[in-house]
Specification:
The chain is an alpha+beta fold. It has 16 helices and 17 strands. The C terminus is likely disordered.
């Protein structure tokens, strides 16, 4: 900085290039403690009045340094620029940027300059200790002419390094929101004088600008981390989306539709269709406790376990028994799953199922207009207690009947008044739209939920399956007669 100020003096015609170089050489070799202006005054090259130009030069250089700081995005370079500026502007022997460890309350000397900088870098100062501790605690600057006469002085650093602090100025660093993030400190004026209260405004302005730059660097880092997280979550969503069935069961006279929308990028709802034999398939819907990535990981685990057991073609109650025991062993004790698992015999139009604590599916009969819940057969939630026994139930399905399977995200969807969509509204939509095909009915239910919530943020994963018995094939008529008997 001294050379740059000298260049301004030379440009003004106060000194020649030769005189400037000689003064700089004197300063660097034998009078490092003296300001360049004082050396020029001692040599009779400039007057006291001309030396007042230094104030102007300092302010110009400060603005230049602030510009360099604000153009820097790499954090270490930013901190180094701040501390070099702090030391040069205050014409001090050394300076330090001290940051607050919000977790522990300590202060950390993050970037020191000047004598003993290597020794003190990274040093922790206990909460409230030293002048910087006082400044951070009270949010006010301090100017001290003789630190050894002040009880706030933290002597340990001088003792450890052999450096002797004479005087100092310390001002707080505030975030744009007004929170204190640390302090900057300059020690030992090189001209032998003391810092004064008159130095505080200039140093504080610089500190404020430096704090803004630091905050900006932090926000940029957070923004980058957020982008990386968004990319990871997007990838996780693609992976989870790959778990959903690529193809739905396709049989004459049976319509199938399904959808799942996580509340965040990924979720813990689960649905699946698993072929078992040519004329039967499994239908699954479940809800893992919690939301987000932990729930999604457990959902993936559940899917793998269930598909493994389905391939063994056990009775439905035994399949869930085995899945439950494995979940209890392999997952945290505070996690559980509600699960509906059924196997549809296409030829008989008969659904054999176990409901382990899940929302009972709704069965609508177009012939009677009646909506009822499937019989509550099964047992408790899975993944919580091992060796639970589960019971199976059967439901014969006739033409004109349909089943709607759903998770809490449907009935517990909330509007801005925090009212739930509820089962009654769900039943009403089913009655109104029951003549539609399975896909259209599902879309109409989802649209009704969206209209009700009025774009209120989705608070839970939302999953639905619609299974509709269509047509009047001979086997359907026979099944109807069998039911009537």
């Amino acid at each position: 900085m001294a050379k740059r100020i000298g260049e301004i003096l030379r440009a003004k015609g106060y000194v020649s290039e030769t005189q400037l170089n000689e003064a700089l050489q004197i300063q660097s070799q034998s009078q490092k403690h003296k300001l360049l202006g004082q050396i020029l005054i001692d040599q009779g090259l400039i007057t006291q009045e001309q030396a007042q130009l230094f104030n102007y030069c300092q302010k110009c250089l400060m603005l230049d340094l602030v510009g360099r700081i604000n153009s820097t995005t790499e954090l270490q370079s930013l901190l180094s620029a701040i501390m070099e500026a702090a030391r040069d502007i205050m014409e001090a022997e050394g300076s330090s940027l001290i940051v607050l460890d919000h977790d522990k309350g300590d202060l950390i000397i993050a970037v020191p300059t000047g004598p003993a900088s290597n020794e003190i870098s990274g040093t922790r100062i206990p909460s409230g200790k030293g002048f910087c501790g006082w400044v951070v605690r009270h949010g006010e600057p301090v100017v001290v002419s003789d630190v050894y006469k002040d009880s706030r002085f933290y002597l340990d650093i001088d003792k450890a390094t052999g450096f002797r602090t004479r005087n100092l100025i310390c001002v707080p660093l505030h975030t744009p929101q007004g929170e204190i993030m640390g302090a900057i400190e300059a020690v030992n004026r090189r001209d032998g004088k003391d810092f004064s209260d008159a130095d505080v405004p200039l140093f504080s302005v610089f500190a404020d600008q430096a704090a803004i730059a630091l905050e900006r660097a932090r926000l940029q880092k957070e923004s980058l981390e957020k982008q990386l997280l968004e990319q990871e979550l997007s990838l996780a969503y693609q992976i989870q989306e790959g778990f959903w069935p690529k193809e739905f069961p396709s049989y004459p006279g049976i319509g199938v539709a399904a959808m799942s929308l996580p509340a965040t990028h990924v979720g813990g709802d689960y649905y699946d269709f698993v072929p078992i034999q040519d004329d039967s398939f499994a239908v699954v819907i479940g809800d893992v406790s919690g939301k987000g990535m932990p729930a999604a990981l457990l959902m993936a685990t559940l899917r793998a376990m269930l598909r493994t057991q389905v391939e063994n073609n056990h009775p439905v109650e035994e399949t869930i028994f085995l899945v439950n025991n494995t979940l209890v062993k392999e997952t945290p004790s505070n996690k559980f799953v509600t699960l509906f698992y059924g196997v549809l015999d296409v030829a008989k139009r008969e659904l054999t199922y176990v409901n382990a604590g899940h929302n009972p599916p709704l069965l609508y009969d177009h012939n009677t207009g009646e909506i009822k819940e499937l019989a509550d057969a099964g047992g408790l939630i899975i993944g919580f207690i091992d060796n639970l026994k589960f019971e199976a139930a059967r439901q014969r399905l006739r033409p004109g009947q349909l089943l709607v399977f759903f998770t809490d995200g449907v009935t517990e969807a909330q509007n801005p008044c925090e009212e739930f969509f509820g089962q009654e509204r769900l039943r009403a939509v089913i009655r109104e739209q029951a003549d539609k095909d399975a896909q259209t009915l599902m879309e109409r239910i989802y649209q009704a939920v969206k209209d009700f919530t009025q774009n209120h943020p989705q608070s839970d994963d939302l999953t639905m399956i619609v299974l509709k018995i269509e047509g009047t094939r001979r086997s359907d008529r026979e099944a109807t007669k069998d039911d009537e008997r």
